[in-house]
TrEMBL record:
This is SRPBCC domain-containing protein. It holds the Pfam family AHSA1. Belongs to the AHA1 family. Transmembrane segments: none annotated. It comes from Arthrobacter jiangjiafuii. The lineage of its organism: Bacteria, Bacillati, Actinomycetota, Actinomycetes, Micrococcales. Residues 34-180 form the Activator of Hsp90 ATPase homologue 1/2-like C-terminal domain.
Length: 196
């Protein structure tokens, strides 16, 4: 049996400069066989957010100016060159900047999971949901990462081989799997992380 405990490494500056893909704006799109209302629930309701991705419980106050928090998943641990270090109980904190169910959620947030990222400025994440034909929807995630190179490295998925996870690509694939099949990528054998 393998250990599927989520692990977040502490990235060193030389690892960050090794890749040129950490653009200041990252945009991801995925089509999901689900109505916008189901996708909205999956990204805003704690009972859903615990079921896919890294398993963090998101708390979204349903209004502009409301709090946005993601609690540490129960088994999340961080590793550094000298061993495991504790992750904070709240790994993401921020504020809701746009709230228009079921089509638009935007948050300005800080990534607190490691000391380097916690020192970076807040970044904006926009979730835009568009209804398509045949019961499908398109989810577009736009992440403005100006001034946040550590967070950019983690959410891009580029450092998955170092244990940083698959970032937004993994989260979106796992969400798609859960909404379309009722099972996560781990449950379907699709792996712990993945790319779009």
């Amino acid at each position: 049996m393998t250990d599927d405990t989520p692990v977040v490494p502490r990235l060193r500056d030389e690892e960050l400069t090794a890749s040129g893909r950490h653009r200041t704006t990252q945009i991801y799109r995925i089509e999901i066989a689900a109505a916008p209302e189901r996708i909205w629930a999956a990204i805003t309701e704690p009972g859903w957010t615990e079921r896919y991705g890294y398993g963090g419980r998101a708390v979204v106050e349903p209004r502009v100016g409301g709090r946005y928090l993601v609690e540490k998943p129960p088994h999340l641990r961080m590793v550094a060159g000298d061993g495991t270090i504790p992750a904070p109980d709240i790994i993401i904190e921020g504020v809701v900047t746009a709230y228009d169910p079921p089509t638009l959620l935007a948050t300005e947030m800080r990534f607190l999971v490691d000391p380097d990222s916690a020192q970076e400025p807040a970044t904006e994440v926009r979730y835009e949901i568009e209804r398509l034909a045949d019961g499908r929807s398109r989810l577009t995630v736009t992440h403005d990462l100006r001034g946040a190179p550590h967070m950019a490295a983690v959410v891009s998925g580029d450092f998955e081989s170092l244990g940083a996870g698959g970032g937004h690509p993994y989260m979106l694939r796992d969400l798609k799997s859960l909404l379309e099949t009722g099972r996560t990528l781990r449950e379907t054998g699709g792996g712990r992380h993945g790319n779009l």
